[in-house]
Write a structure and sequence with these properties.
Layout (H helix, E strand, L loop, with lengths): L8 E7 L3 E7 L5 E8 L11 E2 L1 H19 L6 E8 L5 E4 L9 E2 L7 H9 L3 H8 L8 H11 L3 H6 L3 E4 L1 H9 L6 E3 H4 L5 E2 L4 E2 L1 H6 L9 E3 L2 E6 L5 E7 H8 L8 E5 L3 E8 L10 E6 L5 E9 L3 H9 L9 H8 L7 E3 L17 E3 L7 H27 L5 E5 L6 H11 L2 E5 L4 H13 L15 E5 L5 H18 L10
Parallel strand pairs: 1-5, 5-14, 9-12, 15-21, 21-22
Antiparallel strand pairs: 1-2, 2-3, 4-7, 6-8, 10-11, 13-14, 15-16, 16-18, 17-18, 19-20, 22-23
The chain binds adenosine-5'-diphosphate (ADP) and SN-glycerol-3-phosphate.
SN-glycerol-3-phosphate binds next to α9.
Protein backbone atom coordinates (compact mmCIF):
# COMPACT_ATOMS: atom_id res chain seq x y z
CA UNK A 1 0.00 0.00 0.00
CA UNK A 2 1.14 3.53 -0.75
CA UNK A 3 1.49 5.91 2.19
CA UNK A 4 -0.82 8.80 3.04
CA UNK A 5 1.10 11.34 0.85
CA UNK A 6 0.18 9.36 -2.22
CA UNK A 7 -3.44 9.02 -1.32
CA UNK A 8 -5.10 12.20 -2.46
CA UNK A 9 -8.77 11.52 -1.89
CA UNK A 10 -11.34 10.95 0.82
CA UNK A 11 -14.69 9.29 0.15
CA UNK A 12 -17.73 10.30 2.14
CA UNK A 13 -20.61 7.85 2.20
CA UNK A 14 -23.83 9.71 2.99
CA UNK A 15 -26.53 7.17 3.72
CA UNK A 16 -29.70 9.32 3.84
CA UNK A 17 -33.37 8.48 4.33
CA UNK A 18 -34.20 8.50 0.65
CA UNK A 19 -30.88 7.89 -1.07
CA UNK A 20 -27.35 6.60 -0.69
CA UNK A 21 -24.61 8.92 -1.90
CA UNK A 22 -20.85 8.66 -2.33
CA UNK A 23 -18.84 11.84 -2.72
CA UNK A 24 -15.12 11.97 -3.42
CA UNK A 25 -13.18 14.97 -2.07
CA UNK A 26 -9.67 16.08 -2.97
CA UNK A 27 -7.08 17.65 -0.64
CA UNK A 28 -8.67 21.10 -1.02
CA UNK A 29 -12.02 19.60 0.02
CA UNK A 30 -13.40 20.12 -3.47
CA UNK A 31 -15.97 17.63 -4.75
CA UNK A 32 -14.35 15.46 -7.42
CA UNK A 33 -17.26 13.19 -8.09
CA UNK A 34 -20.71 12.26 -6.76
CA UNK A 35 -22.85 9.17 -7.26
CA UNK A 36 -26.34 8.74 -5.86
CA UNK A 37 -29.10 6.13 -5.83
CA UNK A 38 -32.58 6.38 -4.36
CA UNK A 39 -34.01 3.27 -2.71
CA UNK A 40 -37.46 1.97 -1.79
CA UNK A 41 -39.52 3.31 1.10
CA UNK A 42 -41.92 0.79 2.62
CA UNK A 43 -45.09 1.88 4.43
CA UNK A 44 -46.61 -1.41 5.69
CA UNK A 45 -49.22 0.36 7.84
CA UNK A 46 -50.33 3.95 8.47
CA UNK A 47 -47.50 5.77 10.25
CA UNK A 48 -45.01 2.90 9.78
CA UNK A 49 -41.83 3.33 7.71
CA UNK A 50 -39.27 0.64 6.81
CA UNK A 51 -36.18 0.19 4.62
CA UNK A 52 -34.53 -3.00 3.43
CA UNK A 53 -31.05 -3.03 5.06
CA UNK A 54 -29.68 -5.15 2.22
CA UNK A 55 -30.83 -2.52 -0.26
CA UNK A 56 -29.22 0.18 1.88
CA UNK A 57 -25.94 -1.72 1.76
CA UNK A 58 -26.26 -2.58 -1.93
CA UNK A 59 -26.97 1.02 -2.99
CA UNK A 60 -24.23 2.37 -0.73
CA UNK A 61 -21.60 -0.05 -2.09
CA UNK A 62 -22.75 0.52 -5.65
CA UNK A 63 -22.42 4.31 -5.46
CA UNK A 64 -18.96 4.01 -3.96
CA UNK A 65 -17.80 1.83 -6.87
CA UNK A 66 -19.59 4.11 -9.33
CA UNK A 67 -17.99 7.29 -7.95
CA UNK A 68 -14.50 5.77 -8.09
CA UNK A 69 -15.08 4.57 -11.64
CA UNK A 70 -16.45 7.93 -12.78
CA UNK A 71 -13.46 9.74 -11.31
CA UNK A 72 -11.09 7.18 -12.83
CA UNK A 73 -9.62 6.39 -9.41
CA UNK A 74 -8.37 3.19 -7.84
CA UNK A 75 -9.17 2.45 -4.20
CA UNK A 76 -5.43 2.63 -3.41
CA UNK A 77 -5.65 6.38 -4.01
CA UNK A 78 -8.23 6.84 -1.24
CA UNK A 79 -6.85 7.82 2.18
CA UNK A 80 -10.03 7.04 4.12
CA UNK A 81 -13.79 6.71 4.11
CA UNK A 82 -16.06 8.83 6.28
CA UNK A 83 -19.55 7.51 6.98
CA UNK A 84 -22.56 9.64 7.78
CA UNK A 85 -26.05 8.31 8.07
CA UNK A 86 -29.75 8.78 8.67
CA UNK A 87 -29.86 8.45 12.44
CA UNK A 88 -32.02 6.34 14.81
CA UNK A 89 -33.01 3.88 12.05
CA UNK A 90 -32.68 0.46 13.64
CA UNK A 91 -31.20 -2.70 12.15
CA UNK A 92 -30.88 -6.13 13.80
CA UNK A 93 -28.94 -8.81 11.97
CA UNK A 94 -27.69 -12.34 12.35
CA UNK A 95 -23.97 -12.38 13.10
CA UNK A 96 -23.43 -15.68 11.28
CA UNK A 97 -25.44 -15.23 8.10
CA UNK A 98 -25.03 -11.44 7.89
CA UNK A 99 -28.78 -11.19 7.10
CA UNK A 100 -31.13 -8.77 8.87
CA UNK A 101 -33.85 -10.48 10.89
CA UNK A 102 -36.34 -7.72 10.10
CA UNK A 103 -36.53 -4.66 7.86
CA UNK A 104 -34.83 -1.53 9.21
CA UNK A 105 -37.34 0.44 11.27
CA UNK A 106 -36.89 4.00 10.06
CA UNK A 107 -36.56 7.02 12.37
CA UNK A 108 -39.91 8.36 11.15
CA UNK A 109 -41.79 5.17 12.08
CA UNK A 110 -44.44 5.51 14.82
CA UNK A 111 -44.99 1.82 15.62
CA UNK A 112 -43.42 2.03 19.07
CA UNK A 113 -45.73 4.81 20.26
CA UNK A 114 -47.46 2.49 22.74
CA UNK A 115 -44.07 1.43 24.17
CA UNK A 116 -43.31 5.11 24.75
CA UNK A 117 -46.67 5.67 26.43
CA UNK A 118 -45.91 2.76 28.75
CA UNK A 119 -42.50 4.27 29.59
CA UNK A 120 -44.31 7.48 30.53
CA UNK A 121 -46.93 5.67 32.61
CA UNK A 122 -44.11 3.86 34.41
CA UNK A 123 -42.58 7.21 35.30
CA UNK A 124 -39.39 6.98 33.19
CA UNK A 125 -39.77 10.21 31.21
CA UNK A 126 -37.66 12.39 33.50
CA UNK A 127 -34.91 9.76 33.74
CA UNK A 128 -34.80 9.44 29.95
CA UNK A 129 -34.51 13.18 29.56
CA UNK A 130 -31.85 13.57 32.26
CA UNK A 131 -29.73 10.64 31.09
CA UNK A 132 -30.12 10.45 27.33
CA UNK A 133 -31.06 14.08 26.58
CA UNK A 134 -34.09 12.86 24.61
CA UNK A 135 -37.86 13.09 24.85
CA UNK A 136 -39.86 9.89 25.21
CA UNK A 137 -40.90 9.55 21.58
CA UNK A 138 -40.88 6.64 19.08
CA UNK A 139 -38.37 8.62 16.99
CA UNK A 140 -35.40 7.07 18.79
CA UNK A 141 -33.88 3.60 18.31
CA UNK A 142 -34.44 2.07 21.77
CA UNK A 143 -38.18 1.47 21.51
CA UNK A 144 -37.84 0.36 17.87
CA UNK A 145 -35.29 -2.23 18.98
CA UNK A 146 -37.58 -3.38 21.78
CA UNK A 147 -40.39 -3.73 19.23
CA UNK A 148 -38.25 -6.03 17.06
CA UNK A 149 -37.19 -8.13 20.06
CA UNK A 150 -40.83 -8.36 21.20
CA UNK A 151 -42.17 -9.26 17.76
CA UNK A 152 -39.59 -11.45 16.01
CA UNK A 153 -39.93 -14.83 17.61
CA UNK A 154 -36.93 -16.01 19.60
CA UNK A 155 -34.91 -12.89 18.83
CA UNK A 156 -34.38 -11.71 22.43
CA UNK A 157 -33.05 -15.11 23.44
CA UNK A 158 -30.80 -15.26 20.40
CA UNK A 159 -29.53 -11.74 21.14
CA UNK A 160 -28.72 -12.82 24.70
CA UNK A 161 -26.65 -15.70 23.32
CA UNK A 162 -24.70 -13.20 21.23
CA UNK A 163 -26.13 -14.45 17.92
CA UNK A 164 -27.75 -11.16 16.88
CA UNK A 165 -26.33 -7.66 16.56
CA UNK A 166 -28.02 -4.27 16.75
CA UNK A 167 -26.85 -1.16 14.98
CA UNK A 168 -27.89 2.16 13.55
CA UNK A 169 -27.11 2.43 9.84
CA UNK A 170 -23.46 3.43 10.41
CA UNK A 171 -22.84 0.21 12.42
CA UNK A 172 -24.61 -1.92 9.83
CA UNK A 173 -22.60 -0.48 6.94
CA UNK A 174 -19.25 -0.74 8.73
CA UNK A 175 -19.96 -4.32 9.77
CA UNK A 176 -20.78 -5.18 6.15
CA UNK A 177 -17.85 -3.24 4.65
CA UNK A 178 -15.36 -4.90 7.02
CA UNK A 179 -16.71 -8.38 6.29
CA UNK A 180 -18.22 -8.72 9.76
CA UNK A 181 -15.00 -7.84 11.60
CA UNK A 182 -15.99 -4.52 13.19
CA UNK A 183 -19.13 -3.77 15.22
CA UNK A 184 -18.93 -0.11 16.27
CA UNK A 185 -20.85 3.15 16.33
CA UNK A 186 -19.83 6.66 17.36
CA UNK A 187 -21.00 8.97 20.16
CA UNK A 188 -23.26 11.05 17.91
CA UNK A 189 -25.23 8.02 16.72
CA UNK A 190 -25.27 6.39 20.16
CA UNK A 191 -26.80 9.58 21.56
CA UNK A 192 -29.89 8.96 19.40
CA UNK A 193 -30.69 5.49 20.70
CA UNK A 194 -32.31 6.37 24.06
CA UNK A 195 -29.96 3.72 25.48
CA UNK A 196 -26.90 5.91 25.94
CA UNK A 197 -25.91 8.11 28.85
CA UNK A 198 -24.69 11.31 27.19
CA UNK A 199 -22.90 12.45 30.37
CA UNK A 200 -20.88 9.33 31.26
CA UNK A 201 -20.62 8.30 27.57
CA UNK A 202 -21.66 4.72 28.29
CA UNK A 203 -24.59 2.46 27.45
CA UNK A 204 -27.08 3.00 30.25
CA UNK A 205 -27.75 -0.11 32.34
CA UNK A 206 -31.14 1.10 33.56
CA UNK A 207 -32.45 1.88 30.06
CA UNK A 208 -31.25 -1.52 28.81
CA UNK A 209 -33.08 -3.11 31.73
CA UNK A 210 -36.27 -1.08 31.28
CA UNK A 211 -36.46 -1.93 27.56
CA UNK A 212 -35.17 -5.48 28.09
CA UNK A 213 -32.33 -5.14 25.61
CA UNK A 214 -29.40 -7.57 25.89
CA UNK A 215 -26.11 -5.67 26.13
CA UNK A 216 -24.43 -8.41 24.06
CA UNK A 217 -26.02 -7.07 20.89
CA UNK A 218 -24.80 -3.46 21.22
CA UNK A 219 -21.88 -2.01 19.24
CA UNK A 220 -18.76 -0.59 20.84
CA UNK A 221 -19.02 3.22 21.01
CA UNK A 222 -16.06 5.17 19.60
CA UNK A 223 -15.16 8.78 18.88
CA UNK A 224 -16.28 10.30 15.56
CA UNK A 225 -12.77 10.58 14.16
CA UNK A 226 -10.47 7.55 14.36
CA UNK A 227 -9.60 4.49 12.29
CA UNK A 228 -12.21 1.83 13.06
CA UNK A 229 -11.08 -0.79 10.54
CA UNK A 230 -10.63 -1.38 6.82
CA UNK A 231 -12.93 -2.37 3.99
CA UNK A 232 -12.30 -5.72 2.33
CA UNK A 233 -10.45 -3.79 -0.39
CA UNK A 234 -8.19 -2.23 2.24
CA UNK A 235 -9.51 1.35 2.57
CA UNK A 236 -9.42 2.76 6.12
CA UNK A 237 -12.74 3.79 7.64
CA UNK A 238 -11.87 6.90 9.64
CA UNK A 239 -14.99 8.94 10.42
CA UNK A 240 -18.53 8.32 11.63
CA UNK A 241 -21.21 10.85 12.49
CA UNK A 242 -24.99 11.02 12.36
CA UNK A 243 -25.89 13.11 9.33
CA UNK A 244 -27.09 16.14 11.28
CA UNK A 245 -23.97 16.27 13.40
CA UNK A 246 -21.84 15.75 10.27
CA UNK A 247 -23.59 18.73 8.65
CA UNK A 248 -22.94 20.84 11.76
CA UNK A 249 -19.26 19.88 11.53
CA UNK A 250 -19.18 20.38 7.74
CA UNK A 251 -20.59 23.89 8.25
CA UNK A 252 -17.77 24.35 10.78
CA UNK A 253 -20.21 25.09 13.59
CA UNK A 254 -17.72 23.77 16.12
CA UNK A 255 -17.87 26.64 18.60
CA UNK A 256 -20.64 27.27 21.15
CA UNK A 257 -23.51 29.35 19.73
CA UNK A 258 -22.97 28.32 16.08
CA UNK A 259 -26.00 26.75 14.41
CA UNK A 260 -27.26 25.35 11.12
CA UNK A 261 -30.53 24.04 9.69
CA UNK A 262 -30.53 21.13 7.23
CA UNK A 263 -33.47 20.73 4.84
CA UNK A 264 -33.54 17.08 3.77
CA UNK A 265 -36.32 14.55 4.32
CA UNK A 266 -36.86 16.25 7.66
CA UNK A 267 -35.41 19.54 8.94
CA UNK A 268 -32.86 19.55 11.70
CA UNK A 269 -31.70 22.69 13.46
CA UNK A 270 -28.64 22.13 15.65
CA UNK A 271 -26.80 24.61 17.83
CA UNK A 272 -23.39 23.75 19.24
CA UNK A 273 -23.25 24.32 23.01
CA UNK A 274 -19.60 23.28 23.49
CA UNK A 275 -18.82 21.20 26.57
CA UNK A 276 -22.18 22.05 28.21
CA UNK A 277 -25.07 19.63 27.84
CA UNK A 278 -27.80 22.29 27.94
CA UNK A 279 -31.20 21.04 29.06
CA UNK A 280 -34.11 22.42 27.07
CA UNK A 281 -37.28 23.84 28.55
CA UNK A 282 -38.90 24.21 25.13
CA UNK A 283 -38.92 20.78 23.51
CA UNK A 284 -35.38 20.70 22.12
CA UNK A 285 -33.19 17.60 22.42
CA UNK A 286 -29.77 17.54 24.04
CA UNK A 287 -27.46 15.57 21.82
CA UNK A 288 -23.80 14.79 21.16
CA UNK A 289 -22.04 16.72 18.42
CA UNK A 290 -18.39 17.13 17.34
CA UNK A 291 -15.85 19.64 18.62
CA UNK A 292 -13.04 21.08 16.42
CA UNK A 293 -11.12 17.76 16.24
CA UNK A 294 -14.18 15.56 16.19
CA UNK A 295 -14.16 15.15 19.98
CA UNK A 296 -17.37 15.05 22.02
CA UNK A 297 -19.25 18.34 22.23
CA UNK A 298 -22.93 18.93 22.93
CA UNK A 299 -25.71 20.48 20.90
CA UNK A 300 -29.33 21.49 21.23
CA UNK A 301 -31.43 20.07 18.44
CA UNK A 302 -34.85 20.79 17.00
CA UNK A 303 -35.96 17.87 14.84
CA UNK A 304 -38.81 18.32 12.34
CA UNK A 305 -39.96 15.00 10.89
CA UNK A 306 -41.35 16.10 7.53
CA UNK A 307 -39.56 18.73 5.46
CA UNK A 308 -38.49 17.71 1.93
CA UNK A 309 -40.60 14.57 2.37
CA UNK A 310 -43.65 16.84 1.99
CA UNK A 311 -42.39 17.68 -1.48
CA UNK A 312 -41.84 13.98 -2.20
CA UNK A 313 -45.44 13.38 -1.16
CA UNK A 314 -46.61 15.93 -3.75
CA UNK A 315 -44.49 14.09 -6.31
CA UNK A 316 -44.99 10.42 -5.43
CA UNK A 317 -48.44 10.17 -3.86
CA UNK A 318 -50.42 13.20 -5.09
CA UNK A 319 -48.48 13.20 -8.38
CA UNK A 320 -49.07 16.94 -8.90
CA UNK A 321 -45.41 17.65 -9.70
CA UNK A 322 -42.83 15.65 -11.64
CA UNK A 323 -39.79 16.86 -9.84
CA UNK A 324 -39.02 18.57 -6.50
CA UNK A 325 -37.54 21.54 -8.38
CA UNK A 326 -40.92 22.26 -10.03
CA UNK A 327 -42.33 23.42 -6.70
CA UNK A 328 -40.45 26.70 -6.96
CA UNK A 329 -42.09 27.53 -10.29
CA UNK A 330 -45.62 26.71 -9.09
CA UNK A 331 -45.19 28.53 -5.77
CA UNK A 332 -44.07 31.66 -7.61
CA UNK A 333 -47.09 31.54 -9.95
CA UNK A 334 -49.37 32.70 -7.12
CA UNK A 335 -49.00 35.73 -4.86
CA UNK A 336 -49.76 33.78 -1.68
CA UNK A 337 -51.19 30.45 -0.55
CA UNK A 338 -54.74 31.86 -0.70
CA UNK A 339 -55.23 31.12 2.98
CA UNK A 340 -54.19 27.44 2.67
CA UNK A 341 -52.04 25.78 5.33
CA UNK A 342 -50.65 22.28 4.94
CA UNK A 343 -49.52 20.66 8.18
CA UNK A 344 -47.37 17.68 7.13
CA UNK A 345 -47.73 15.70 10.37
CA UNK A 346 -47.55 12.46 8.35
CA UNK A 347 -45.62 10.73 11.11
CA UNK A 348 -46.80 12.84 14.02
CA UNK A 349 -45.04 16.04 15.04
CA UNK A 350 -41.49 16.33 16.31
CA UNK A 351 -39.99 19.40 17.99
CA UNK A 352 -41.26 21.40 19.71
CA UNK A 353 -44.65 19.61 19.91
CA UNK A 354 -43.65 15.93 20.26
CA UNK A 355 -47.05 14.56 19.41
CA UNK A 356 -46.95 11.04 17.94
CA UNK A 357 -50.75 11.14 17.58
CA UNK A 358 -50.92 14.23 15.33
CA UNK A 359 -51.67 13.58 11.65
CA UNK A 360 -51.40 15.76 8.56
CA UNK A 361 -54.13 18.09 7.29
CA UNK A 362 -54.91 20.83 4.77
CA UNK A 363 -56.73 23.87 6.16
CA UNK A 364 -58.41 26.92 4.67
CA UNK A 365 -59.79 25.30 1.51
CA UNK A 366 -62.16 27.51 -0.48
CA UNK A 367 -63.44 27.20 -4.08
CA UNK A 368 -60.66 29.41 -5.45
CA UNK A 369 -57.89 27.14 -4.19
CA UNK A 370 -55.76 25.64 -6.94
CA UNK A 371 -52.95 23.13 -7.01
CA UNK A 372 -50.43 26.02 -7.11
CA UNK A 373 -51.68 27.22 -3.72
CA UNK A 374 -51.33 23.73 -2.23
CA UNK A 375 -47.80 23.38 -3.59
CA UNK A 376 -46.95 26.79 -2.16
CA UNK A 377 -48.48 25.82 1.19
CA UNK A 378 -46.33 22.67 1.20
CA UNK A 379 -43.13 24.72 0.84
CA UNK A 380 -44.36 27.28 3.37
CA UNK A 381 -44.97 24.47 5.90
CA UNK A 382 -41.25 23.68 5.85
CA UNK A 383 -40.43 27.29 6.73
CA UNK A 384 -43.13 27.53 9.42
CA UNK A 385 -41.85 24.38 11.13
CA UNK A 386 -38.35 25.83 11.14
CA UNK A 387 -39.72 28.98 12.78
CA UNK A 388 -41.39 26.83 15.49
CA UNK A 389 -38.05 25.24 16.23
CA UNK A 390 -35.90 28.37 15.98
CA UNK A 391 -38.21 30.28 18.33
CA UNK A 392 -37.96 27.44 20.88
CA UNK A 393 -34.19 27.20 20.53
CA UNK A 394 -33.73 30.94 20.96
CA UNK A 395 -35.82 30.81 24.11
CA UNK A 396 -33.59 28.03 25.44
CA UNK A 397 -30.29 29.62 24.53
CA UNK A 398 -31.39 33.18 25.37
CA UNK A 399 -29.65 34.30 22.17
CA UNK A 400 -31.07 35.58 18.90
CA UNK A 401 -29.37 34.24 15.79
CA UNK A 402 -28.07 36.97 13.51
CA UNK A 403 -28.31 34.65 10.52
CA UNK A 404 -29.37 31.07 9.86
CA UNK A 405 -26.88 28.87 8.01
CA UNK A 406 -28.67 26.33 5.85
CA UNK A 407 -27.89 23.20 3.83
CA UNK A 408 -29.54 20.01 2.47
CA UNK A 409 -31.31 19.13 -0.78
CA UNK A 410 -34.25 21.53 -0.44
CA UNK A 411 -32.14 24.70 -0.02
CA UNK A 412 -31.83 24.75 -3.81
CA UNK A 413 -35.36 26.19 -3.72
CA UNK A 414 -35.07 29.99 -3.81
CA UNK A 415 -38.75 30.50 -3.00
CA UNK A 416 -38.39 28.40 0.13
CA UNK A 417 -35.24 30.22 1.24
CA UNK A 418 -36.81 33.66 0.74
CA UNK A 419 -40.01 32.65 2.53
CA UNK A 420 -37.86 31.23 5.31
CA UNK A 421 -36.06 34.56 5.77
CA UNK A 422 -39.43 36.37 5.64
CA UNK A 423 -41.18 34.21 8.21
CA UNK A 424 -38.20 34.21 10.59
CA UNK A 425 -37.38 37.87 10.15
CA UNK A 426 -33.78 36.62 10.06
CA UNK A 427 -31.22 36.49 7.28
CA UNK A 428 -30.70 33.05 5.71
CA UNK A 429 -27.20 32.18 4.48
CA UNK A 430 -26.83 29.52 1.82
CA UNK A 431 -23.29 28.17 1.42
CA UNK A 432 -21.59 27.57 -1.90
CA UNK A 433 -20.75 24.06 -0.78
CA UNK A 434 -24.12 22.30 -0.42
CA UNK A 435 -22.78 18.85 0.45
CA UNK A 436 -22.00 19.82 4.01
CA UNK A 437 -23.15 16.50 5.47
CA UNK A 438 -20.73 14.55 3.30
CA UNK A 439 -18.07 17.20 3.84
CA UNK A 440 -18.38 16.82 7.61
CA UNK A 441 -17.88 13.06 7.34
CA UNK A 442 -14.92 13.60 5.00
CA UNK A 443 -13.33 16.06 7.47
CA UNK A 444 -13.71 13.57 10.32
CA UNK A 445 -12.08 10.81 8.27
CA UNK A 446 -9.39 13.14 6.92
CA UNK A 447 -8.46 14.35 10.41
CA UNK A 448 -8.27 10.77 11.70
CA UNK A 449 -5.71 9.63 9.14
CA UNK A 450 -3.62 12.81 8.96
CA UNK A 451 -4.90 13.71 5.47
CA UNK A 452 -5.73 17.12 6.97
CA UNK A 453 -3.91 18.51 9.99
CA UNK A 454 -6.73 20.57 11.47
CA UNK A 455 -9.99 22.27 10.55
CA UNK A 456 -8.09 25.57 10.34
CA UNK A 457 -6.62 24.41 7.03
CA UNK A 458 -10.14 24.26 5.67
CA UNK A 459 -11.89 27.29 7.10
CA UNK A 460 -11.70 29.12 3.78
CA UNK A 461 -14.18 26.59 2.42
CA UNK A 462 -17.14 28.02 4.29
CA UNK A 463 -18.12 30.48 1.52
CA UNK A 464 -21.64 31.94 1.39
CA UNK A 465 -23.23 31.65 -2.06
CA UNK A 466 -26.35 33.75 -1.39
CA UNK A 467 -27.94 35.66 1.47
CA UNK A 468 -31.73 35.92 1.68
CA UNK A 469 -32.86 39.08 3.49
CA UNK A 470 -36.22 39.21 5.28
CA UNK A 471 -38.62 41.33 3.24
CA UNK A 472 -42.00 40.90 4.95
CA UNK A 473 -43.32 43.52 7.35
CA UNK A 474 -43.82 42.52 10.96
CA UNK A 475 -47.64 42.54 10.93
CA UNK A 476 -47.94 40.43 7.78
CA UNK A 477 -45.32 37.99 9.08
CA UNK A 478 -47.02 37.47 12.43
CA UNK A 479 -50.47 37.19 10.84
CA UNK A 480 -49.27 34.38 8.57
CA UNK A 481 -47.52 32.63 11.43
CA UNK A 482 -50.59 32.88 13.69
CA UNK A 483 -52.54 31.02 10.98
CA UNK A 484 -49.93 28.29 11.01
CA UNK A 485 -50.11 27.89 14.80
CA UNK A 486 -53.88 27.60 14.59
CA UNK A 487 -53.62 24.95 11.86
CA UNK A 488 -51.08 22.95 13.90
CA UNK A 489 -53.33 23.05 16.97
CA UNK A 490 -56.10 21.37 14.94
CA UNK A 491 -53.90 18.40 13.97
CA UNK A 492 -52.88 17.56 17.53
CA UNK A 493 -53.86 14.34 19.24
CA UNK A 494 -55.71 13.11 16.13
CA UNK A 495 -55.11 9.35 16.33
CA UNK A 496 -57.34 7.61 18.87
CA UNK A 497 -55.39 6.34 21.86
CA UNK A 498 -55.61 5.53 25.52
CA UNK A 499 -56.00 8.68 27.61
CA UNK A 500 -57.38 10.77 24.71
CA UNK A 501 -60.54 12.85 25.25
N1 LIG B 1 -35.71 22.22 -5.33
C1 LIG B 1 -36.29 21.61 -4.30
N2 LIG B 1 -37.35 22.17 -3.67
C2 LIG B 1 -37.93 21.59 -2.61
N3 LIG B 1 -37.52 20.42 -2.09
C3 LIG B 1 -36.48 19.82 -2.66
C4 LIG B 1 -35.81 20.37 -3.78
N4 LIG B 1 -34.80 19.54 -4.12
C5 LIG B 1 -34.84 18.50 -3.24
N5 LIG B 1 -35.85 18.67 -2.38
C6 LIG B 1 -36.22 17.76 -1.26
O1 LIG B 1 -35.05 17.56 -0.48
C7 LIG B 1 -34.98 16.19 -0.06
C8 LIG B 1 -33.65 15.62 -0.49
O2 LIG B 1 -32.64 16.25 0.23
P1 LIG B 1 -31.45 15.41 0.85
O3 LIG B 1 -30.61 16.39 1.59
O4 LIG B 1 -30.84 14.62 -0.23
O5 LIG B 1 -32.29 14.48 1.84
P2 LIG B 1 -31.99 13.11 2.63
O6 LIG B 1 -30.55 13.18 3.05
O7 LIG B 1 -32.95 13.18 3.76
O8 LIG B 1 -32.31 11.94 1.73
C9 LIG B 1 -36.13 15.46 -0.68
O9 LIG B 1 -37.10 15.24 0.31
C10 LIG B 1 -36.65 16.41 -1.76
O10 LIG B 1 -38.05 16.34 -1.88
O1 LIG C 1 -31.86 11.46 5.98
P1 LIG C 1 -31.96 12.84 6.48
O2 LIG C 1 -30.88 13.72 5.96
O3 LIG C 1 -33.31 13.45 6.34
O4 LIG C 1 -31.69 12.79 8.06
C1 LIG C 1 -32.44 12.00 8.89
C2 LIG C 1 -32.07 12.28 10.34
O5 LIG C 1 -30.78 11.86 10.65
C3 LIG C 1 -33.06 11.64 11.27
O6 LIG C 1 -32.75 11.94 12.59
Amino acid sequence: MTDIQNKNYIIALDQGTTSSRAIIFDRDANVVCTAQREFAQHYPQAGWVEHDPMEIFATQSAVMVEALAQAGLHHDQVAAIGITNQRETTVVWDKTTGRPIYNAIVWQCRRSTEICQQLKRDGHEQYISDTTGLVTDPYFSGTKLKWILDNVEGSRERARKGELLFGTVDSWLIWKFTGGKVHVTDYTNASRTMLFNIHTLEWDAKMLDVLDIPREMLPEVKSSSEIYGHTKSGIAIGGIAGDQQAALFGQMCVEPGQAKNTYGTGCFLLMNTGDKAVKSKHGMLTTIACGPRGEVAYALEGAVFNGGSTVQWLRDELKIINDAHDTEYFANKVKDSNGVYLVPAFTGLGAPYWDPYARGALFGLTRGVRVDHIIRAALESIAYQTRDVLDAMQQDSGERLKALRVDGGAVANNFLMQFQADILGTQVERPKMRETTALGAAYLAGLACGFWGSLDELRGKAVIEREFEPALDETAKEKLYAGWKKAVSRTRDWEPHEGAE
